[in-house]
């Protein structure tokens, strides 16, 4: 009886030892998975910015399918790959370090573009204010004020569109540029 128990546990050990090679079949490679997870987290972030919290099913499934199609995979292979990498944390942790770096770089580039656009708008506003202060009280100064107000509104709309098109990753406290000084003038 003792020989049978030893044989049984030896066979179990052998089967579990060979199971790791089966898990690796059909799993996305590390770099492919990093790129896919970056896009999945961007979709997650864009869904968090949706005004309706229950719109995940309506809006989310199409976005996820588009990401999977873009990476030439499907949800089943993605789930299998995630299960594999989660069961191998020694591989998954460095992957998420790379993902965080990529998302941070994207966020920094968006913030730099917004800052550049804000600087251009600020200079335009200063030029318009200087022109209005030179003593032109006729209808052209009213037109410049209207133009300045349009520029302010346009800047606020640009900022909102940029926030919606390039969401930030979940769980990261990355500061976004806030334009409170333009909102006072409305």
UniProtKB/TrEMBL annotation:
InterPro entries: DUF4296. PROSITE patterns: PROKAR_LIPOPROTEIN. Residues 26-108 form the DUF4296 domain. Residues 1-19 form the signal peptide. The keyword Signal applies. Residues 127-186 are annotated as: Disordered. Keywords: Signal. Residues 127-162 have a biased composition (Basic and acidic residues). This is DUF4296 domain-containing protein. It comes from Mucilaginibacter panaciglaebae.
């Amino acid at each position: 009886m003792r020989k049978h128990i030893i044989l049984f546990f030896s066979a179990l050990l052998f089967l579990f030892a060979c199971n790791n090679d089966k898990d690796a079949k059909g799993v996305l490679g590390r770099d492919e998975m990093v790129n896919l997870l970056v896009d999945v987290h961007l979709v997650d972030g864009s869904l968090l910015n949706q005004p309706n919290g229950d719109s995940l099913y309506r809006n989310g499934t199409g976005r996820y399918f588009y990401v999977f199609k873009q990476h030439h995979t499907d949800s089943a292979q993605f789930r299998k790959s995630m299960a594999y990498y989660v069961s191998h944390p020694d591989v998954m942790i460095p992957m998420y370090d790379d993902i965080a770096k990529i998302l941070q770089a994207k966020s920094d580039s968006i913030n730099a573009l917004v800052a550049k656009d804000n600087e251009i708008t600020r200079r335009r506003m200063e030029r318009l204010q200087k022109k209005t202060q030179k003593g032109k009280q006729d209808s052209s100064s009213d037109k410049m004020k209207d133009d300045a107000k349009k520029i302010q509104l346009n800047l606020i709309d640009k900022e909102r569109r940029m926030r919606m098109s390039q969401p930030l990753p979940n769980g990261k406290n990355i500061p976004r540029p806030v334009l409170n000084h333009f909102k006072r003038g409305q």
